[in-house]
Amino acid sequence: MDQGIYVIILIGTALVLLAAFSSLIARRFGAPLLLIFLGIGLAAGTDGLGLDFDNATAAYFIGSLALAVILFDSGFGTSLASFRAAAAPAITLATFGVLLTAGIVGVAAHFITDLGWLPSMLLGATVASTDAAAVFFLLRVGNISVRDRVRSTLEVESGSNDPIAIFLTLSLVSLIATGAAAEPEKLALDVAFGFLQQMGIGLVAGLIGGYLIVRLVIRLRLDQGLVPIFVLALSLLVFSITGAFGGSGFLAVYIAGLVAGNSRLRATDQIKRFQDGVTWLAQIIMFLVLGLFATPSQFPEIALPALVLGVFLIFVARPIAVALCLLPFRFTREETAFISWVGLRGAVSILLAITPVIDNIDGGRALFNTVFIIVLVSLMIQGWTVGPLARRLGMVVPPRLGPLNKVELELPGSAHHELLAYRIVAGSPVERGARIPRWARPSLVLRDGRSMTYQYAGRLMAGDRVYIFVPDRYPRLLDRLFASPAEVDSEDAEFFGAFAVDPDRPALELEQAYAPGLKEKELEMTIAELVAARLGGRAEYADRVTLGNIELIVRDVDDDDHITSIGLSVEPPAQAPKVPAFISVSELLRRLWAMLQSRKTAREPRAGEN
Fold it and tell me: What is this structure's pTM?
């Protein structure tokens, strides 16, 4: 047998192991992990160790397959509650935001580089979408705790905006390759029809595919170990069939994951653990392959315009697109700035930049190199500064729960129920004597190596392990009972105010005590209703409402999003942190209106003047 096969396997395995090991470095030094994956690929490529990989078709195929796996996992891990909370702003960003970003970057590219209009717009389309892998890593693995609505918006946007960018890129590549741009009327009709076809087929195929995945897993009594493999294979089947029928396979696989992940599947915990590992592997392979395909020695000739475009994308194009898209959705200036900054570019942009190379478009390799540098700029500038900027903008919120030791167990034949194993943590409510709700049925307690029924165990003690049989959609209350109190430092205490107020007390008492200037209708509300009304009807953990010289802070909400605890700060609200690179459209309009009003007042003749 040819020994070259073993050499290829050896090198490939060594690169994957090195990439996996680099995750320890990323966590230790706060480096963007995906940047390290790309760096390893570059170091092993033509200009590094000398591995010559120049097959654009193979790179695109591997990248597309890996992206399909990542998108299915993104949808599978997104709860419907998070999706509903962020659906409107996230989908607006994933559609209009992508179009705006592509257009703004395309115009800039036309004037900064020597590209024509269509190639410039193609470059804008390739970098128009955010990278799901990069965003999910920063928010979930990076332990950046921000408000639920902001986090959900970013995650849903990053998971759903790739299909639009892919459609734009492939359409522009086709137009440039065939020269069809000479007929603008026909071009507009073809693009509109193609968009409706791909998105429509992708959406329907995703819904049907997700439903079929759920039904097949429930009906077929497969071995537990085969279920995760079966689900992954079905997701790729949805992806491939949708693409074969002219739809967006990437949209379909994301929607299928969303449907399957929010259904009552067997072995859900096993599927999640399996997909977590497969998704990491897909990310590593995709970034390594794209790094190997790049040729750094070609970068210098386009480095300067690419760097300018990368900075322009971060500081101009993305903020403008985000500000315009979020204008109707009551996001604060700080939230808009944070969402703008977490729009990292990654493997999807590099993958799309390969398509001009595959179609042998003039300047395709230069466009690929330009996009590669833009992605590096995004990962280096944004990826390394998300944490500091979140703290600068006051976006970081204290954790709701302390350490929690829980294992979800799958029981054969336990339809719609789960067995949870909790280890009692010192200081948790149950360790202090709190009662477990009636809908949860404790069945066994393990203490010092001995097993006993819950009824005879007496008061639960730290170190006990208790097994509870619950419905598969158990409320978050159970986790709160078994978690230790979150560690609260002086900054956290200051964050939630000096003392607590009863959310069910009338808001009239606030007016009598602090005179914040409430409206007549607000005086008839409770404090909780007042806070919810000022927040647009729905309050979240850590939301803040300023009333004159006091500030009300939401300390906790229940499973129905009703406010259960409110903090009050009597300190004058601090001035919002200023980040000059960002300004929301609403604030800009307010400033322009104030300027016009002041000029109008200045022109009016004063009393007694002719």
Answer: 0.79
